[in-house]
Model the fold of this input.
Amino acid sequence: MTDSTNSMTIAIAWCLAWGEGTQPQFDLTVLQQMRQALSEGKEVPEEVRAIVGSVQQLETLDFPQSLDELKQLTQKYSTLWKAKIGLVFGGATKIKQYVFEAAKLPDIRGASGLLDRINLIDLPAFFKCEESPQDFPECQQARNYCQNVRWQLQNKDTNLEQLWPGLIPELVIYSTGGKILAFCPTAFVTELTNLIEKRYTEETLTANSCAVGDSFRLLETRLGLLNNPIEQTKWLDWYLENKTRQNHPIVEAYFGRRGEGENWEDLFKKRKNFNELAGKLVALFNQRRNGNNLPGMERSSRRYPPMFETHPYLVRDTVEYRTAVAPALGLPDEPWFSDAIARKRIVGQRAKREDSSGQGWYKTAQFGWQSGQGKKLWQPGKVLSWVFKFEQFLKKLDYQQEYYQGVSRQQVKEARSLTEIGNASNGFVGYIYADGNNMGGYIQNELNTPEDYRKLSRDIFTATEESVYHALGQHLHPHKLKDLTGENQHRNGAIIHPFEILTIGGDDVILIVPADKALEIAKNIGDKFEQILLEKEDYRIKDKELIAHSRECHRYQGKIPLLPSQGKLSMSVGVLLASANTPIYYAENLTNQLLKSAKKKAKQLKQWYGYHGGTVDFLTMKSVTMISSNIESFRQEALTQQLPKQQKLKLYGAPYTLHELGGLLKTAEKLKESEFPRSQLYQIRSLLERGKHTAILNYRYFRVRLKADQQKLLKDYFEQAWCDAKTNKGNLAPWMSLLKEDETTTYETIWRELVDLYPFIPESKSQEDPQYSTAETQA
Done:
């Protein structure tokens, strides 16, 4: 992979050598020679030697300690002060609104795939990123498509003939996670930002997008935003001269609050760097996204999103938002599609690599836009397949034998519906929504240069993608469909990958997997994400006392070894276990709430214990009507009790740390192995609501009626692992005590979650030929 420092040197030198006009100030061949020489470490052409020297000086500048030193710097390096460089930032907005607009999985899959294609291929294609295969493998695999993107756009707008020569792959800082950040010559800032927004609209028709840009002095890429004249800049000496000023709410909000052991100078330096430029673009992005006109920018407002007129007497599409164009002849039930929905469906079919015979409806109905006298059919282009990338990952790491288990790889196809995924787990699926923790703080405190941004983007995307593939490869295997009925009956006997990757973007993931493996996969993703990042020193916590203190946050004290979290970055995960026929938009909403709950728990543990690791919140939903409000209200009103003059009782234990989730799964496995009568499981759960003592008494009564070895299982894996008292040597099973800072005690229990997970725990070998104890038979 190209060295990021060298790439940024090339990018900045290219923009300076190009100049501030639409035509380069030097011959284009000279710029290409300069680019090649810098890439190979050779001497650059004489015409641009002074420019390259200025860029290299920029990288070695010392941070000025006063305003006078800053003024001297601008006088000594006048080129760095006068020369300007463009910076653009943009991407899709309101992504969930677009992706989950439709209720059908193929349409959701297609919407996600289309946005991924634009972000990972189309936008980098503007910069000819297919020429840099190591840094942009997706573009390299779609080389002809990338060239065709530029050719088609140029046919529509001949002015783009001037834009393409000015863009090279090194200018892209990152293009993952649904956003792009890139340098460009100053003359092309407005044109490039308009082109980014236009690409999303032309390809998706209805997705929202936003792009902004600005020109900055070259010195600002090193020292942050500077005023002109330079004397008006508030610099380090102004910041340090008055402690009252440092603690002023406005100053503190901008530069941050000083942490323990941190000095004021470091706090100032963390703000005054390239990070400040990126922060300005994010603020402009939010302004424009909200429909506001940007001051000093001659760009049309985006407050008027794409609108498609409807009529009460015309047929609408499957989401009832737009007028339908034609029926999709050949698809089940022949649904009526608008152009926007048709594009989602055809991209979804391409992403699943379905037979071309099943895609004939798209050409037959002639979906497309009027172009002159005829209608031009929209082409899906190069469609990314996450399953294909997963298969390549298995091949690369020699995982194939472990995953396929003797099944021919050619026989295994993608799952086409939630019903097929749920077929691997008695009709239930697990929705997994994962997102990174501590990202904002890490960016603010650790990133200072464009190289840092590029490196973080690549590391996070790689860690996220590989952690997902590792988890799926370790916990799932090809599944042969059986007992399907209705419109899916013809699929019986087919062998599928029993999962659906809706998106892997930056540090967030949305997956659908069989319910019985969902929590294991979620835990594995979180663990592997941290493990991959820990291979690089930049993401490792150096404070051993902090690591040791973080161990105290875990409630599980069982036999699974505790590996303390040592990484600065981690993942929180929301998991919903639900029936395969649960409406996707409803399931996504609940999963998003679970993710927010898990992230809230992670923030609390970081504040209280210095814990930087991952957390998981999950919910098992047996019926759609189980929750009528939101999950937090449901837990507060239905699962939390505080009787007069008694302690507070929480009838649930979620969210969990990753270590606790591992312990919960082990406890659930041993609970099932203990052959605890199922009727008594539910009875103890119902008795939790009657108070702490009643629940303890009933649990003891039923536990002593088990065989001795089965009692030992519960004692070792449930009581001693979870329920030891905090202030004495007693045991509170099935309760856990949670001591708070105000010395009040809250009692919570994992019993409800254990009962909910019981149907999803595989039968142990000893239970395949069950032999019940006399006590259990009597019970």
About this structure: The chain has 34 helices and 21 strands.
